[in-house]
Design a protein that fits this description.
The complex is a heterodimer. By secondary structure, chain A is an alpha/beta fold. Helices cover 36% and strands 29% of the residues of chain A. Chain A folds into two domains: 227 residues, P-loop containing nucleotide triphosphate hydrolases (Rossmann fold, 3-Layer(aba) Sandwich); 68 residues, Alpha-Beta Plaits, CATH 3.30.70.260. In chain A, strands 6-7-8-3-9-10 form a six-stranded mixed β-sheet, sandwiched between helices. Chain A has a four-stranded antiparallel β-sheet with strand order 2-1-4-5. A four-stranded antiparallel β-sheet of chain A has the order 12-13-11-14, covered by helices on one side. The longest helix of chain A has 16 residues. Chain B has one domain. In chain B, α2 packs across α6, α3 runs antiparallel to α6 and α7 packs antiparallel against α10. Chain B is globular. The two termini of chain B are 22 Å apart. Classes of the chains: A alpha/beta, B mainly alpha. Chains A and B meet through α2, β6 and α3 of A and α1, α4 and α5 of B.
């Protein structure tokens, strides 16, 4: 295990104006274990405690309670050893805005112990790999969001860390740049680098990670491989729209069907969870027709991580913010 | 540790060289004082020649560079905190104090270069001063830079707010400058002002500078100025290094 955390907690004390100090429990007991070579995601809505968790693991802030070993070292007792084994790319990117990217790359390599020559060679390697050679002498502030993010990633990788932390790596990127970054994360995984990333995009966690935890209000609500978690909810989801007032009786009717796992109502829309949508759909349609409940619209989809989130928290991740 | 400090110094100096226009711009104010204020002072003092006035006035201008050049260096750091740059350095293998030390050393180098330009200008305008005294004065300036940079970085790390910092630094800078006797000698001031000026380390630095320019190395203001600026500099540096250590505490 490249990361093992038990009972991580973080409580911040904030003072609002003249009011008395207020305790904010950002993380309330998180257990994590990440296998070496895996891409591991921490998925959750904004304010769930994702960033606080990753910051504790990257030795940026000390945990209030709990323990964590990262790359074989305790984050509280041996932060310097941990820092030698990790790359960290924060939410803002964390690149010096006024300097050219090449200078930042070389500095990062030399701080990691390389000679100037070695650091320059490594810098050129990464510039080429991330398609940044042309932009290497431009001050970072003149680059686009996607280009900055690529520099941030390159700097995080200079010292070939076995473990890379990415905090919200694609927030604010357009779809093209997001797809590119996904490719880069996949290729890192191919080279054996372990990655821990936080995200509030379901698609991102689903597309990239081997395993994930879903956290909400500072607690882990689910942990596993994406497929495994979705299987626990159901294989497929039928989304139904019915006439006004029909949702209640339809819910009762469908819940009683043997092939239906669960039915959730959101106003006029019903989400019906089935293990096998292809075979379950015909009897479901018949049952509604026999019950005199005409359908306005219907769709059949694979269950997503949002359904997992919904199941565990009672809310949809899309409107949990 | 020293290696990391040297790496940051090297990085910051290259950065300064990439945009040399800003430190040059910072020179404009002291140069204006030399060109537009020194002749005025020369006229108001009885029997004062331009050369004498410049000899009194230049040490003060040098201290002004040291103070104004360094008090505002922390501003850049606030945006570096905000965009996560310092945070990333903090979780890199870098020795955290080196992040501040490298910058402070850069500030000191820039100050010394700026001071040399000002002295060269004063020399062209007719000032003649003791050369060894001048060299020691540059050291004193560097020590003042340490004090002011330390204060500025410490303030940036503690406040993390450009507006607040601007107000506080302005509030500091004006009385400190007025109570140095740069503009007019403190001997013209009423007794209470002279008493207050005694608590201003920059006042002693300017006094020491005047003695040094005269080649008078025995003047007690010289060890006093070095002692004060170095002690206070050590204090402000400790503060900013400690703030850097617990950057995201």
């Amino acid at each position: 295990m490249i990361i093992e955390a038990h009972g991580l907690r973080k409580t911040f004390t904030t003072r609002r104006g003249r009011g008395k100090p207020e305790q904010v429990e950002a993380v309330r007991g998180v257990d994590l274990s990440v296998e070496a070579g895996h891409v591991f995601a921490v998925l959750g809505p904004n304010g769930a405690g994702k960033t606080t968790t990753i910051r504790m693991l990257a030795t940026l802030i000390p945990p209030t309670a709990g323990t964590a070993r990262v790359a074989g070292h305790d984050v509280a007792a041996e932060p310097a050893e941990v820092r030698r084994s990790i790359g960290y790319v924060g939410q803002g990117g964390g690149v010096d805005e006024n300097a050219p990217g090449r200078a930042g790359l070389v500095l990062a390599g030399r701080l990691g112990g390389m000679t100037r020559r070695r650091a320059e060679e490594r810098g050129e390697e990464l510039l080429a790999a991330f398609n940044l050679t042309e932009l290497a002498e431009r001050p970072i502030r003149t680059l686009s969001g996607g280009q900055k993010r690529r520099f941030a990633l390159a700097i995080g990788l200079v010292n070939r860390p076995p473990l890379l932390f990415l905090d919200e790596p694609t927030s604010g990127l357009d779809p093209q740049n997001r797809a590119n970054l996904w490719e880069e994360v996949r290729s890192l995984r191919g080279q054996g680098t372990s990655v821990l990333l936080t995200t509030h995009y379901l698609e991102e966690a689903d597309a990239l990670c081997d395993r994930l935890v879903i956290i909400d209000h500072g607690l882990v609500v689910a942990e596993g491989a994406p497929e495994e978690l979705k299987k626990q909810v159901a294989g497929d989801v039928v989304t139904l729209r019915l006439r006004h007032g029909d949702a209640g009786p339809a819910r009762a009717l469908l819940s009683a069907q043997p092939y239906v796992r669960e039915v959730r109502a959101e106003e006029e829309t019903l989400r019906v969870y089935l293990d096998d949508g292809e075979h379950g759909l015909p009897p479901l349609l018949r049952a509604l027709e026999d019950g005199g409940l005409p359908i306005q619209s219907i769709s059949l989809d694979r269950a997503t991580l949002d359904d997992v989130f919904l199941r565990h928290t009672g809310r949809s991740l899309r409107d949990a913010d | 540790m020293l290696r990391h400090t040297a790496l940051f110094l090297d990085y910051e100096l290259r950065q300064t060289l990439r945009n040399p226009v800003w430190p040059l711009f910072g020179l404009l104010q002291p140069v204006m004082y030399l060109l537009l204020f020194a002749p005025l002072v020369a006229k108001t003092t009885v029997g004062g020649t331009m050369a004498d006035t410049l000899k009194l006035f230049t040490p003060g201008v040098m201290m002004m560079i040291a103070l104004f050049g360094s008090l505002f260096v922390g501003f850049g750091m606030i945006s570096e905190i905000r965009n996560g740059y310092l945070e990333r350095l903090a979780v890199s293998p870098a020795w955290r104090p080196a992040i501040v030390l490298g910058r402070t050393l850069r500030d000191m180098v820039v100050l010394v270069v700026q001071a040399l330009v000002v002295v060269a200008l004063a020399w062209l305008m007719g000032m003649r001063a003791s050369v060894p005294g001048l060299a020691v004065m540059l050291l004193l300036m560097a020590a003042t830079g340490l004090l002011a940079s330390g204060l500025s970085y410490g303030m940036a790390l503690a406040l993390r707010d450009e507006n607040g910092m601007g107000q506080i630094m302005q509030f500091f800078a004006l009385p400190v400058i007025l109570l140095t006797g740069i503009m007019l000698p403190m001997s013209l001031a009423p007794a209470w002002m002279q008493a207050v000026a005694n608590f201003n380390p920059l006042y002693h630095a300017v006094e020491a500078g005047r003695s040094l320019f005269d080649g008078d190395f025995a003047d007690p203001s010289i060890p006093l100025a070095f002692g004060l600026t170095l002690a206070l500099g050590a204090l402000t540096m400790t503060w900013s290094v400690a703030s850097m250590r617990k950057l995201a505490g």
